[in-house]
Amino acid sequence: MSDVAIGVAWRQVRDRFRASGIDTPELDARLLAQKAFGLDSMALVRREREPAPADQLKTLDQFAQRRLVGEPISRIAGEQEFWGLNFALNDSTLVPRPETEQLVEEGIASLDGKRSPYVLDLGTGSGAIIVSILDALPKAKGFATDIAEEALAAARQNAERHGVAARLQLKAGPWWQAVPHTEMFDLIVANPPYIATPAIAELPAEVRVFDPRAALDGGWDGLEAYRAIAAQAARRLNPGGLVLLEIGYNQGETVSRMFGRAGFGRVEVRKDLAGLDRVVAASHS
């Protein structure tokens, strides 16, 4: 045990964060202390006068150093909440963003009334989208792909954590190459990389440095993944099915035209809560 109390330890970290100009110093310090000391938020309050174990104090200091050089809290903690569920992360997974919950919400709504829907998630990363959908729909089954085996390991871990692993197939490979030719789906979802290669240098350091480049880089114009998905999506969709794709705020018109040319009779752009183009929805009617 050290001579430093748990409450003193995390407040010292808060003060370091505050002095360095971190936007949410108290919240960040609390979250890192909870992770370092293995406590939930209430226990952190109840036990703040107890001496901090020396090894955990060292862990907290290491966490603080990582945060001070710009590493996001979710990366340090190794997990992120999404759709009310906690998802494990690793170096090959994007941190799930709140705006991506729109894909989950609209995907679940599109499957209303279907007895045992089959869902495909292309480029699944941590599995946040497909696991959230399967968690909400106990009769649904899923298939998810990713080029990174390490990402699929995180998706598998998250599927097991949330009790949907028996209903989810995971396979490594780029886009459709990982999906058997005979498989047809009621819903196809994807949050593909959509940042144009030259624009990556302009991203905030928290994203540019700590998110995997493969999950960000959409090629010279940011649209390579959409071309790959559009190539087969129309013939992989069951009657009445839907494709939902997250897009960049300025890509709605271009991606819509792409999917219209790919054989979809109805394509629309849906806005997020900030009023920005966020999702392209494509169907046969």
Break the fold down into its secondary structure elements and pairings.
Elements: H1 6-20, H2 25-37, H3 41-46, H4 54-68, H5 73-77, E1 79-82, E2 85-88, H6 101-110, E3 118-122, H7 128-136, E4 141-146, H8 149-161, E5 168-172, E6 185-190, H9 205-208, H10 224-233, E7 237-246, H11 252-261, E8 266-271, E9 277-283
Parallel strand pairs: 3-4, 3-6, 4-5, 6-7
Antiparallel strand pairs: 1-2, 7-9, 8-9
Helix pairs in contact: 1-2, 1-4, 2-4, 6-7
Quick structural overview:
By secondary structure, the protein is of the alpha/beta class. A seven-stranded mixed sheet has the order 5-4-3-6-7-9-8, sandwiched between helices. Helix 1 packs antiparallel against helix 2, helix 1 runs parallel beside helix 4 and helix 2 packs antiparallel against helix 4.
The rough form would be described as elongated
Amino- and carboxy-terminal Cα gap = 66 Å
Structural category = alpha/beta
Mean pLDDT: 95
Regions with pLDDT < 50 over 5+ consecutive residues?
none
Helix content: 25-40%
Placed side by side, the strands forming the largest sheet appear as 5-4-3-6-7-9-8
Q: What fraction of residues sit in β-strands?
A: 15-25%
General description of the model:
The chain has 285 residues and is an alpha/beta fold. It is built from eleven helices and nine strands. Strands 5-4-3-6-7-9-8 form a seven-stranded mixed sheet, sandwiched between helices. Helix 1 runs parallel beside helix 4 (54-68) and helix 6 runs parallel beside helix 7.
